[in-house]
Write a structure and sequence with these properties.
Strand content: 15-25%
Radius of gyration: 25 Å
Number of domains: 3
Number of helices: 14
Number of strands: 21
Distance between the termini: 28 Å
Structural class: alpha+beta
């Protein structure tokens, strides 16, 4: 299994090296004209039978390795989110220099024919995928996929973080402004992964925790928690006067208290402020809690077209190593929210920390077997700019990755060496299962097909004998070696109960020796 991990990681590492070298040699050209293969437009013709712009002929052929999907194993193609202009100079330049990845994609596939999808997700928003495949919009003609919202991108691009989101619900936020604010919060939640912790506080004259049961603490940003908070956002309404000083004091206290308990990410901390204005710079609060170390970054989002209070919000962000942006319409939300990821990635970029990331298992809708969509994990690594003029600024270029079917992990387990009662399993740094013999996927009612909305399963849900999570915590805390404990099991077909000593041996693959949660 360790050898397989190493093999996949090396494939990703070669992509990183090629991408950084290609960008180093590229000089940005605002007038660059370049016809690339757009994954949505390829092979599309107009009413006169001519190929559309960016939709040149792209040879596709069914391939059994890719579930008989029509693909091109010689070239990659590029997907651009519907809400972005596909000929934007930043997009065109990025697509141009990343074209050199085609050779590495093909070489990786030749070296390791078990590889599935390989890709580069750009910080500018485009997604280069190998082998090339045609993307089909939904019934509304939209492709909502944005690689920067995917877990593999988020985990590779940023360090773990603790986040408090403050939302202004004073009377001036009524109507469209509150709608934009809610969408901004939702988009921020999209950028949080399982390594992150968060809470949301609405404020006017008083503080209103979006989830009152979680007053004064932070929760892990797993899918269940994020969806729960999203449901509660609809209950927010605007009235009264905004008292930002009270909200800032509460946010700083939560982050400080949570950090002192040793819980959470034990890494980056941030306050996201979403408001239509601030009447003061609140420097006395920052001086009390955050200066001179500035351990908590402040990101400010000005809602609405008016810029009367923009200067105060800009000052707050700049004085606390954060970022200011203005969001005037719902269409502006996605791109403006993404800006904070570039800021939080800077320490990793400047230190050139090419951490290898393995995600928890998830369902891939593009590949299926006789039981439905295939269970998959992703190995990813960040790509940094090495150009002299940008290196000191810490510019993240994007993230490269490749998918690994969980069944490939199972093939590496030498069952004949484990004995009749032995078994092997693997988990992520958050305790989620990659593979385990007791992992039972949910099936659609009345069918033997996996549900497409598979949620991650924690080790504690299948190793039920580990009631105090001793085994789980040892693995999450990266302890290695032999481990044993007494367990009770039924014998004689359930008529008697006996106590037995069960042993495990924990090892950490060499490709996972970095810490995702630095102390």
């Amino acid at each position: 299994m360790e050898e397989m991990f190493h093999k996949k990681s090396e494939a990703v590492r070669r992509l990183v090296e090629a991408a950084e070298e290609a960008h180093l040699k590229h000089e940005f050209d605002a007038d660059l004209q370049y016809e690339y293969f757009n994954a949505v437009l390829i092979n599309e013709r107009d009413k006169d039978g001519n190929f559309l712009e960016l939709g040149k002929e792209f040879i596709l052929a069914p391939n059994d390795h890719f579930n008989n999907l029509p693909v091109n194993i010689s070239l990659s193609d590029v997907q651009v989110p519907t809400n972005m202009y596909n000929k934007d100079p930043a997009i065109v330049n990025g697509v141009y220099w990343s074209e050199s990845l085609n050779k590495v994609f093909v070489d990786n596939f030749d070296r390791d024919p078990s590889l599935i999808w390989q890709y580069f997700g750009s910080a500018k928003g485009f997604f280069r995928q190998y082998p090339g495949i045609k993307w089909e919009p939904d019934e509304n003609g939209v492709i909502a996929f944005d690689c920067r919202n995917r877990k593999w991108y988020i985990q590779a691009a940023t360090s773990p973080k603790d986040v408090v989101i403050l939302v202004d619900v004073s009377g001036s936020m009524k109507g469209l402004r509150l709608t934009i604010a809610k969408q901004t919060v939702s988009s921020i939640l999209d950028t949080l992964g399982d390594d992150d912790f968060f809470n949301i506080i609405a404020y006017n004259e008083e503080l209103h925790y979006v989830e009152p049961c979680l007053n004064g603490t932070l929760v892990q940003a797993d899918r269940t928690n994020k969806e729960h908070f999203r449901e509660h956002l609809d209950k927010l309404f605007a009235k009264g006067i905004g008292m930002l000083d009270i909200a800032l004091n509460e946010a700083f206290n939560i982050l400080s208290d949570f950090n002192h308990t040793g819980q959470g990410s034990i890494c980056s901390q941030a306050i996201m402020l979403i408001t239509d204005g601030a009447v003061d710079t609140y420097d006395t609060i920052f001086a009390k809690y955050n200066w001179p170390d500035r351990k908590v970054r402040i990101f400010t989002y000005l809602i609405g077209r008016e810029a009367a209070f923009a200067d105060n919000l800009k000052w707050m962000a700049c004085a606390n190593k954060g970022f200011f942006t203005q969001i005037s319409t719902l269409a502006d939300v996605q791109e403006n929210v993404m800006e904070y990821l570039h800021v939080l990635s800077r320490p990793k970029v400047i230190d050139q920390e090419h951490d290898v990331v393995w995600t928890e298992a998830y369902i891939d809708s593009t590949l299926t077997d006789d039981q439905g969509p295939v269970l998959m994990t992703t190995v990813a690594m960040p790509v940094f700019s090495k150009q002299n003029e940008t290196r000191s600024k810490g510019i993240l270029l994007g993230v490269v990755g490749t998918d690994v079917p969980v069944k490939e992990l199972l093939k590496t387990i030498p069952k004949y060496k484990l004995g009749i009662h032995g078994y092997a399993f693997a988990i992520t740094n958050n305790g989620y299962i990659l593979t385990h013999p007791e992992l039972r996927l949910l099936y659609e009612e009345g069918k033997k097909r996996r549900k497409p909305n598979y949620s991650s399963v924690d080790l504690s849900e299948v190793e039920w004998e580990d009631r105090d999570d001793v085994l789980r915590n040892a693995m999450v805390n990266r302890k290695t070696g032999k481990f044993s404990m007494e367990v009770k099991k039924t014998v004689d077909k359930g008529f008697r109960c006996g106590a037995f000593q069960r042993s495990w041996e924990i090892f950490l693959p060499r490709e996972c020796n970095h810490r995702r949660r630095p102390a």
